[in-house]
Structure to design on (301 residues):
């Protein structure tokens, strides 16, 4: 039964039908949740004793940085499924993540730069964390242009999946860059092994903003994957009968 | 939950850091809105094109 469910869900037609149904309520719930988390962080948390109010950018910068890396990992997971099992839906989803990943990574860099002005006295520094995140943005943009440079979707999909798998090496580099190199960027405040170094009053809205921002971006991924399916399957009878 | 500001002015200026915080908020929501609108409009346009094309083919 489980196998049947996965087999059915993995077909672009079934996925499209389910995605169309859940997309709007999913987006609405996570937009509202993120707005609540952001209002909590911006207005209902105390000022930081060193950084003042500029630290409030954390409720936008950290979720964006986290999601920009998670999106690449999801793309890599989809690429493995595509290369091993040739599941069309997985590459449609991977391809539809790339522009969203690029936008989120750009925002992570932008918000970090703005935060850097009052705290570091500079908006840019070629340190390991910032440079590896810039490489992530370049990879997203490169993947988008690589895919559109092919006339043949089959070839484009295969190259896309291979490059994603090669590029996934950058994710642990981004994560560990603050430990491996001496950087201007601070080291991780939240780790799996140690207690967080952030006050609980600030930590709760931070966790909620990360969770809700991830949900919101997944809602946009659902939207963009529906577009990718329509584009690729437009010659199919089920698309024509929509 | 405790509200940490005493006036609208304080929310806006945030002790001199308001400009940084609110610029990031504006760019964030603009980015999200553009992403959502971009894909929603693309889907609508593509569905219209597919329908028009299949109608022409049927005729």
């Amino acid at each position: 039964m489980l196998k049947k469910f996965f087999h059915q869900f993995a077909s672009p037609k079934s996925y499209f039908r389910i995605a169309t149904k859940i997309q709007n309520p999913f987006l609405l719930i996570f937009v509202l949740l993120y707005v609540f988390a952001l209002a909590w962080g911006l207005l209902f948390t105390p000022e930081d004793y060193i950084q003042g109010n500029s630290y409030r950018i954390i409720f936008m910068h950290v979720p964006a940085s986290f999601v920009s890396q998670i999106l690449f990992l999801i793309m890599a997971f989809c690429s493995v499924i595509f290369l091993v099992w040739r599941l069309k839906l997985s590459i449609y989803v991977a391809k539809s993540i790339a522009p969203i990943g690029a936008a989120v990574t750009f925002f992570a860099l932008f918000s970090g730069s703005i935060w850097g002005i009052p705290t570091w006295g500079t908006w840019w520094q070629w340190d390991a964390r910032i440079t590896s995140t810039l490489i992530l943005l370049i990879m997203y943009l490169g993947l988008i242009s690589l895919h559109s440079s092919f006339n043949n979707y089959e070839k484009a999909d295969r190259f896309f999946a291979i490059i994603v798998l090669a590029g996934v090496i950058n994710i642990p580099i981004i994560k560990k860059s603050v430990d491996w190199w001496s950087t201007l960027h601070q080291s991780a405040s939240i780790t799996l092994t140690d207690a967080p170094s952030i006050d609980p009053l600030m930590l709760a809205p931070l966790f909620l903003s990360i969770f809700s921002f991830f949900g919101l971006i997944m809602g946009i991924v659902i939207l963009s994957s529906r577009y990718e399916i329509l584009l690729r399957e437009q010659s199919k009878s089920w698309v024509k009968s929509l | 939950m405790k509200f940490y500001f005493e006036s609208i002015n304080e929310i806006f200026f945030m002790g001199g850091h308001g400009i940084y915080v609110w610029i990031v908020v504006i760019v964030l929501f603009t980015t999200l809105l553009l992403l959502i609108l971009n894909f929603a409009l693309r889907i609508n346009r593509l569905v219209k094109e597919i329908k028009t094309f299949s109608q022409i083919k049927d005729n």
Summary: The radius of gyration of chain A is 20 Å. Chain A has one domain: 24-230.
